[in-house]
């Protein structure tokens, strides 16, 4: 069991570490929200979505779904449209400036409902996240059975929860240090460019 858990932890950490739309969104919300508790909706939603995808991958159910060609096409198209929209929203969002009074901020932040909706979208409409989960975690889990399989799955899930909480906290630290909001404005523009770049890549996959 311990070996399976260590394998799952290292594998999941390697998959979640690269900069992507989901990570950028969680980090940004941690930075722009006036209190860390206000960023919890995005953290919990992203973690729950990863928990769902990992569980389905380990159970083998997601392989059946993603194996369908028409489903893959719909997923890619939905991902392209969403990323274009999300990039536009992020590009236009105003930088947040923090006042000298602790816990007070001026600027535009997403309310909990929008955080949840966007977090679900960048998690569940992200073909890369799904393919990584199914293709790597799902395939790797095939070598285990019984308690070892669940130790592997739980370790992967634990990495997601730890990572997203840590990412939001790191964003919060940046937001606290960048009281003028200038660095966050640059981060917003960079996030939008990453989203549009990902959308372009997915669109090219559809054309091919």
* Major sheet details: 2 strands, antiparallel
| Spatial strand order of the main sheet | 1-2
Helix and strand composition category: mainly alpha
Bin the helical content. over 70%
Question: Could you spell the SSE succession in H and E letters?
Answer: HHHHHEEHHHH
**Which stretches are low in confidence, meaning pLDDT under 50 for 5 or more residues running?**
97-107
Describe the structure.
The chain has helices spanning 2-16, 21-32, 40-59, 61-66, 69-92, 112-124, 127-140, 147-177, 182-207, and strands at residues 97-98, 105-106. It is an all-alpha fold and 208 residues long. It has one domain (2-207). The chain has a two-stranded antiparallel ribbon with strand order 1-2. Helix 2 (21-32) runs antiparallel to helix 3 (40-59). Residues 97-107 have low confidence and may be disordered.
Show the helix and strand layout.
Elements: H1 2-16, H2 21-32, H3 40-59, H4 61-66, H5 69-92, E1 97-98, E2 105-106, H6 112-124, H7 127-140, H8 147-177, H9 182-207
Antiparallel strand pairs: 1-2
């Amino acid at each position: 069991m311990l070996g399976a858990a260590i394998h799952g932890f290292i594998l999941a950490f390697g998959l979640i570490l690269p900069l992507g739309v989901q990570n950028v969104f969680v980090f940004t919300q941690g930075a722009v929200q006036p209190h860390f508790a206000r960023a919890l909706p995005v953290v919990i939603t992203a973690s729950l979505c990863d928990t769902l995808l990992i569980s389905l991958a380990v159970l083998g159910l997601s392989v059946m779904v993603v194996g369908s060609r028409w489903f893959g096409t719909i997923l890619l198209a939905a991902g392209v449209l969403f990323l274009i929209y999300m990039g536009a929203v992020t590009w236009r969002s105003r930088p947040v400036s923090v006042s000298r009074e602790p816990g007070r901020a001026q600027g535009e932040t997403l309310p909990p409902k929008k955080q949840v909706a966007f977090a679900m979208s960048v998690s569940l409409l992200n073909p890369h996240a799904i393919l990584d989960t199914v293709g790597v975690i799902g395939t790797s889990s095939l070598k285990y059975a019984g308690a070892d399989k669940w130790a592997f799955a739980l370790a992967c899930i634990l990495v997601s929860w730890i990572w997203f909480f840590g990412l939001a906290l790191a964003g919060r630290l940046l937001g606290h240090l960048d009281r003028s909001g200038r660095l966050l404005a640059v981060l917003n523009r960079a996030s939008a460019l990453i989203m549009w770049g990902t959308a372009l890549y997915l669109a090219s996959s559809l054309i091919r």
